[in-house]
Amino acid sequence: MAILDVFLLEALINGVLLGGVLALLSLGLNLVFGVIDVVWICYAELIMFGMYGMYFLYTVYHWPLLVAAAVCIVGVGLLGVLLHVLVIAPLLGAAPINQLLATGGVLFFLQSAATVMFSIEFRNLGLRLPVLKLAGMFISYSRLLAFAAALIGMVLVYLFLARTYTGAAIRAIAQDRQIMVLMGVDARRIYLITSALGGGLAGLAACLLVLQYDVHPFVGLSFGPITFLICVLGGLGNFGGGFVAAFVFAELISLGGLYLDLEWGYVFAFVFFIVMMFVRPAGLLARRS
Amino acid sequence: MTRSLGWLAGAGLVALPFVYQQPYHLHLMVVILIWSFAYTSWSVMGRFGLVSLGHGGFMGIGAYVTALAWNHGGVTPWIGIPLALLAGGILAVLVAYPCFRFRITGHYFALVTLALSGIVLQVITATRDHTGGSLGYTPTRHQGGSSLYALQFTGKTTWYLIALAVWGAGLYVWYRVDRSMMRYALEAISEDEDGAAAAGVHVTAEKLKITVLSAMMTALAGALYCQYQMFISPDTVSGISISLQMVFAVVVGGIYVSLGPTVGAVITILLAEVLRISFGTRAVGWDNLVYGILLVLFIVFLPKGIVGSIVDAVRPRRAGRLAV
Amino acid sequence: MLELRSVRAGYGGFQALFDVSLEVRHGEAVGVIGPNGAGKTTLLRVISGLIRPTSGSIAMEGVDLVATPPHRIVAVGIAHVPESRRLFPRMTVEDNLKMGGFLPSARAKYQDRLAFVYELFPRLRERRRQLAGTMSGGEQQMCAIGRALMSDPKLLLLDEPSAGLAPVIVEQLFDLVKRIRAGGLNVLIVEQNVRQVLRVVDRAYLLKAGSIRAAGPASELLASETIREAYLGV
Questions:
Q1: Tens digits of per-residue pLDDT, A161-172?
Q2: What is the reported pTM?
Q3: Do chains A and B touch (3 or more CB pairs under 8 A)?
Q4: Vertex B187, ends B183 and B191: CA angle to 5°?
Q5: Three-point CA angle A237, A239, A242, nearest 5°
Q6: Does A182 sit within 8 Å of C80, measured CB to CB?
Q7: Is residue C216 in some structural domain?
Q8: Do the interacting molecules here have an ipTM over 0.90?
Q9: Topology at the third CATH level for domain A2-285
Q10: Is residue C183 helix, strand or coil?
């Protein structure tokens, strides 16, 4: 019984640590949706490219870790802006299905571009961080680091949104797009800034994920669907909801992985999601699109 | 005039394999027909604004349930396929009912379905001991290859005719839906759900009906694919790529037109073949790369698809949808 | 100061304004009255840039507003308090006011403007951390006006400020408008409540079905038959 408790506790803690990163992911997606009213279906693929960036800069070209991370964050931020300018902006007035499909097209494109450029082999960062032994539990240092960095990232974003004028504009535009003009706010600039922010968050997530997982062109499929589920359950555009949902899902995945294969964790999460949809009254499921 | 032309073309299609026997080309045609049927199945609900990005999941279920029932249970596909259809239908209800009941539409619905196909893929991978996981799965050959009982045939001609029949049936279903009261109900729903509900339309029931129909048809496509290719793997029949490919093909071909999905299938499959032939083994990834760029370009410049845009250009705008 | 000449505007195929010409001179408060659907809201929207005119000219102190990008019109000195307030419901009062002061020129004076608004509307200071969407109609209107004032405008556009408010509140509101006016701000008010608005403005225009039917000093219009006809269709 004692041993079981330790494993359980370890899984619970790992769940919390994973939750931090998933919360970061959902924040980025929610931000873009809340402001621009578009879902970046290819969000996970942006992260995938960020992970490749880290791999090449750190493992292949031997850049210092922090410098590589900074470059990746900025780089994926720029990718976000590019995505907006090339694909989203031309479609802002179009039917939502078209916007979804367009980002779906980008998903295809990014996955295949990665396949063509990097081949389908799994790449590993090659960074061996120590494992902490705490009261009989093994907690990997990289997970702790990822959790801490994710929290810091979220706090920074929170401060940005709460304290700055641009942050206020970002919050406002999600609530009433039309009258932003009356405040002297150029909506297009806000969209660009938000896209950069969303991309930057993806870049940060990439740096954190690459510490723990191998990268390959389809790695996005491992956490893309989960991020979508988190955002839908928490309410698209609802930062607080996404935050909570991220931890709930992370625990489900972690506990599922404890007793069964990792993939079953995702299945549990999805089943949980379906059940939640039956259980929670319509009103609590946030805004309709 | 168009009627008789249609019959003529139909007769031509049926006669084709008896006149023209090149196996590679026949193979291509079978593949095109099966995928056209799959894409048409998607468009049956897609045309009403119920955009599912998860139909890859239904196709996967169709393929794997049929194959697993045969290999592990010795159950003939004649029973296995209905089982697969049932499984697809049940999954559709499980996922779609809460969505529709709680008015989860548009973005939310698309994301939930997207996650669904991802999850189906995960399940297939997780049960690798039974399904072979990402390595794929092969239904066992029965008595030398051609058997009505096992629904396995070596002759391309037979498969061509089967695929043609199913494809034709798919078109027939499309037409029946097009001319049914369900269509008007769904169009009203897609324009204004509350208005439709106020007018007495059972919104959830109608949406659920079309979703189950679409899901079951797609499962059939998966089962058919399995029986024909005699090899299935998670990423060839399920997953997000397949789901997106479906949507892509229909968008390219034209979502509101009966032959749109078929045109889309022809274009995408031929495109993939051309790329494969010109690039050889280096083509891994190039076809999806081109799809991706084309999809984006199509959405931006030709949101109605090729057939749809041509139809729009040739005929004057059809007088609006029926407002209930 | 503000000059509209032969402005036409509408939504899609529907034309709402037909050759509207009006002006607001320095130091003036001007009202635009008229029945429902006359185009009054459209008029203000066309001035503040929310919609573009199909023809005609709009100039503010010589600056061509039609040629100005909509989000720069605030910088020219026009602040618009939209119909039904349009506050950001899930942001606090203070954040709403902050948004009003988004302009770089306004940011520099943020503290001063904030003090000014709180002095004018003490109730807002009490509720500065309250979510704007949870306030009463009258408080929301104060907040909306305060938000517009944060940019230190030269001309304030008020769209149906009395809409949905109890008569007592409306009375207070128009007293406030008088105070703001006394401070040197020009005001263009669009209103259905004829009596209240004519109390407060110097001149007024009567807008009906998209065209100006009458214009003149407030006292004259108050006594005139034309208004009665326009509203009652008699």
A1: 999 999 999 999
A2: 0.84
A3: yes
A4: 170
A5: 95
A6: yes
A7: yes
A8: no
A9: ABC transporter involved in vitamin B12 uptake, BtuC (1.10.3470)
A10: coil
